[in-house]
Amino acid sequence: MEEPTSENEERGITIIAKPRKTPKTLNPQTQPQKLDPTPQFEKFKSSSSSEAAAAQSTTTFGSLGLSEWAAETCKELGMRQPTPVQTHCIPKILSGRDVLGLAQTGSGKTAAFALPILNRLAEDPYGVFALVVTPTRELAFQLAEQFKALGSCLNLRCSVVVGGMDMLTQTRSLVSRPHVVITTPGRIKVLLENNPDLPPVFSRTKFLVLDEADRVLDVGFQDELRTIFNCLPKTRQTLLFSATMTSNLQTLLEHSSNKAYFYEAYEGLKTVDTLKQQYIFIDKDAKELYLAHILSQMEDKEIRSAMIFVSTCRTCQRLSFMLEELEVENAALHSLNSQSLRLSALSKFKSGKVPILLATDVASRGLDIPTVDLVINYDIPRYPRDYVHRVGRTARAGRGGLAVSIITETDVNLIHEIEAEVGKQMELYNYREITDSLEVTKVSKAKRVAMMKMLDDGFEDKVKDRRKLKRKTLADKGMLKKRSKSRKAAEEKTDD
Ligand code: AMP
Fold first, then answer.
1. What is the reported pTM?
2. Over 60: is that where the pLDDT of 317 sits?
3. Residue identifier of the C-alpha nearest atom 14 of ligand 1
4. φ and ψ of 359, to 5 deg
5. Which is higher by pLDDT, 118 or 250?
6. Averaged over 60-68, what is the pLDDT?
7. How many angstroms does the Cα of residue 189 sit away from the middle of ligand 1?
8. 3-class DSSP assignment, residue 292
9. With 80 as the cut, is the pLDDT of residue 255 above it?
10. How confident is the model at residue 487 (pLDDT cuts 50, 70, 90)?
11. 113 contacts 180 by C-beta, under 8 angstroms
12. Where's the Helicase ATP-binding domain (predicted)?
């Protein structure tokens, strides 16, 4: 069951998700047909046989059916050979089929859909040719960068339409009919519903992409998807890409039309072999102290940059202030900051200006930053799926990486669940017990300064306002009274 997480904050409201009882179809208006025991889709499951490897090694972008300019662009971008997900999905997309691609994070899924879309766009350019829906704002900007790079010789017009930015400018940009629109579900819904000029903009759209499809298909985005589907022509191609399989995706696949192609390189919730997974087990009051300790070892361990995941915006900002006080340069990325602050935090981190990014789960999916050598789970995520996405920010594209989880007594069950799902046991991180009272005092002082700064900067007020707004939204939806006490407490732990 999906609980509200910081990612839901993308939408500006909190959704209490419940397990989906009725299956979803690609078009929510149509009722699911009866389940046929024989699958209606063509499925390819990747294997690691030597034959498959040999076939893969002789494949080129040109041999997949892409035009010369596209193959040339890949070369210029250092993509010498297609990855397996690209090899299998690109020809199917070019031939007009719906595709569900399931492959590990960092395996080249973006180019697997962007290249064939751009290839088709170049044959018949118009706007809006493709609509790409992704769960977080930062991912939308990253996707736009990749589309622009891959379509650099096309004069591509690409618009990013996400929450936290000026709606009038976004409306104007959509009315000018860019070739590709990349959006988060909440913002596009609001725009489509409030401006009658906008739905016609998508009346000839050829491609709908759901990136991080498992997340976009979560029950929290149901209304948004319905609005989007209603504006798109039925003849479009639908492309779903995800790193994790969920029952929603499985059901959708079983109900898809017989032209759908399913590429699966997914063997459950897996982490890559090049990732070292370690833990430290400490008292909860010592978390900040040991966090500072791990970070102080970055240089010795030749760690270029680190992402620290926490479960609330409040912890994120507080730790950022604390590290600042300890003279550890960092940036904070969470949904209580404005979009311009969020983007500036990410760009400072990506460009190497700061070596540490503190983030809520808004940054746990898809972000591709090659210098990230370390992921720290300061708070343990409630679901193994989130753990896999978080640690997937390092050890990408065959590189090595380290994930350290800071475990306290109350996290033990969560860790067991994660280890069971991932099929690996974490090792103990090599650390010394901190007995130096100077070090302890320094961190304690920084903690106090950070708390005061939270009050002085009005951050605590922002947290309170957010909670009030959420309660109101839930009350408006008649959902408030249904929440148990424990549910409420759990939400407050992760949702601010
Ligand atoms: P993605 O899984 O789409 O986030 O891609 C992960 C990283 O792999 C990105 O930095 C891509 O630029 C890179 N990439 C994608 N396709 C290829 C390829 N065929 N060869 C080398 N790198 C690639």
1. 0.83
2. yes
3. 108
4. -150, 150
5. 118
6. 97
7. 30
8. helix
9. no
10. low
11. no
12. 90-263
